[in-house]
Automatic annotation (TrEMBL), chain A:
Family: Belongs to the binding-protein-dependent transport system permease family. CysTW subfamily.
Gene Ontology BP annotations: transmembrane transport
Protein name: Polyamine ABC transporter substrate-binding protein
Record-annotated ABC transmembrane type-1 domain positions: 189-395
TrEMBL record, chain B:
Keyword Cytoplasm: no
Domain ABC transporter: 8-239
UniProt-recorded name of the protein: Spermidine/putrescine import ATP-binding protein PotA
InterPro entries according to UniProt: AAA+_ATPase (IPR003593), ABC_SmlMolc_Importer (IPR050093), ABC_transporter-like_ATP-bd (IPR003439), ABC_transporter-like_CS (IPR017871), Mo/tungstate-bd_C_term_dom (IPR008995), P-loop_NTPase (IPR027417), PotA-like (IPR005893), Transp-assoc_OB_typ2 (IPR013611)
Keyword Membrane: yes
GO biological process, one term: putrescine transport
Gene coding for it: potA
Amino acid sequence: MSIAATGLKAELRRAERARKRRAFLLVLPLLLFLIVTFVIPIGDMLRRSVHDTELAGVWPRVAQQIGDWENRSRLPDEALFAALAADLAESRENRSLATAARRLNYAIDNGRSLVFGTARKLPDSAGSWKQAIIEAEPRWGDVELWGAVAQASGPLTGFYLLQALDLKRTAGGDIVSVPSNQAVYVDILLRTFTVSLVVTLLCLALGFPVAYLLATLPTRLANPLMILVLLPFWTSLLVRTAAWIVLLQEQGLVNEAMIWLGLIDQPVRLIYNRIGVYVAMTHVLLPFMILPLYAVMKGISPAYMRAATSLGASPTRAFVKVYLPLTAPGIAAGALLVFILALGYYITPALVGGAADQMISYFIAFYTSDTVNWGMAAALGAVLLTATLILYALYNRLSGSAGMRVG
Amino acid sequence: MSQTDILVSFQGVQKTYDGENLVVKDLNLDIRRGEFLTLLGPSGSGKTTSLMMLAGFETPTRGDIVLEGRSLAKLPPHKRDIGMVFQNYALFPHMSVEENVGFPLSVRGLSRAEQRERVAKALDMVRLDGMAQRHPAQLSGGQQQRVALARALVFEPKLVLMDEPLGALDKQLREHMQIEIKHIHESLGVTVVYVTHDQSEALTMSDRIAVFNDGMIQQIDAPEAVYESPQNSFVAHFIGESNALHGRIERIEGQDCAVRLEDGAEVRARAVNVAGAGSRTSLSFRPEKVHLAPASELYPNALPAQVRETIYHGDHVRIRLAVAGNEEFMVKMRFRADRPIPRAGERLEISFAIADCLALDPLDKPVRALAEAS
């Protein structure tokens, strides 16, 4: 019996194997595509947020010697100063001094001038490099400065991640908040989540009645309405956003209409501020709320509402107790979709928002293309990804019992 | 029957959806307190629309429905206090069995303790105790059916409506539930209006059956009366099986009449629904009331027939005959050792009593085909 059973299992496995292989071959092209275009770049980007060899690349001797600096409350000894002198001289030779200066400038106030100044004033030879360097630039006698150099030497650094959370590490290794005049990133992160949340709620408030109408109308009427809902999808994002600029500007249609109606005397500022961001983003993201809601509502039999009223529930009560809970999966899917899409919004806030309305992706783009600070861009990206995953986990935990789990 | 025995009355009710065709034409119907009334008919006959008007989900285009002397015209469904069991049960999928059954009690603001007690009693009645915490998706079709029943009865409505509640169950379970619903009706004394297109279900369960066709009640009577004395050809052919032979009335003699069939033979029939001498008529015969024997004192009518086919059914044999131009004349024959089963092609005589041969209105289309096509 057992021999027959194992034989049967082996046969089953053999029969399944060909099927599995075929299934795998079918997904293989996409899998490779995703690995090359998605998994590897994102992995590399995340690595950049903690992996830092920029300084070590141009100052290899310092990076090696600084590992031997053990008592970090006292200045390092002669060997490290000698290494610094050799590295300074060599990087001046091969014109890589600017890289070192830029990298140290992130970590040290006036780091750029410090590096260039030291290199300029450094003698060709010295009995004690320690003395010579401190003579050339007295700040090298500061233990904290060396702490910053040690942290910048990599290869692993928490510098960018900490900075993305408005934190820094002191020379002694303690993590402290940066001075409040430098703290910007937590605000930006909170702003990103606030804007996304408000847009999600606006989409839900505007989309729910539309989805309900679409789901309850006869097909003959629902189809043309559905086309109107999908229309924004068929227009370029830039065109849609530009249209909002035309509508919302101070001499725009909305302001003129409100003045004509006597609602306001002076044009109201509706664009290049938060209102503009909310209006334009809600418009762009609305279909992502309506479509999942519609799909769920379409599947709710009208018999449920009838049953509820026949059992004595008023229409309002039947709606709240029966219809609304049944649409919960649609609300959950739509809200999650809109929220996560909104988190990464970049073009719309950049075009219709003011300086105080830019979201985190704006700064990621800024660091990637304007200042070429890939470490910082990667760290902001990592923080956004982590925060989103935490929120998602929290959301799933809260909504799991209500049957609203997504994914 | 006194006025207080009537719970609901439809008074000249009409309903049209498109302004052209009347789905319900002039419905006048009194529903008695405590009875089990079945609205039976093919789909599109107006039975479900009538039920929905009673429940409040449709409004009559003309006429009024009166419940205990009060017009329902202005009363929304949730204030009518009418329990309803839906075709696909319509159990709330996000609520447990207990919450589903407790729903009508919680909207009526009953205390938690009282709710629990009455839910437990209702679940006990439909033999579902122990299932209270399950969700509808975890129940079988029959169990869902019982939950729907418990939910419609738990708030003790005077009237319970059932819209083809057994349609989704398999045959065996359906027959079992028919008996169970019947027993619940008897023990609670609640008035039930039951909609179905299944005539055997109607015969099994009802105190009275209202046969619907074309937006009108064709006949309303006890099951035996509807089966034994149909008032027109539609009822004769929709309820149970009937054979039809067509002919003309020769003369009317009291409650009987003489009918000349299309092939020239003359038979005597009970004149149930005929216009007068010379008019067309359709004779209706139940398959089990026709005898494969020459005329006798009990069965004075006789007609020649030829066997086309015999079909074995275990407890009986069905014999398809050609009689007076009808090639589909069915006769049921019980087994008897002394009576051989006729073979195909054999010629013989069939006989029947006058009371078992009903002269009804002329039948233009086969009713069964009409009912099944719609």
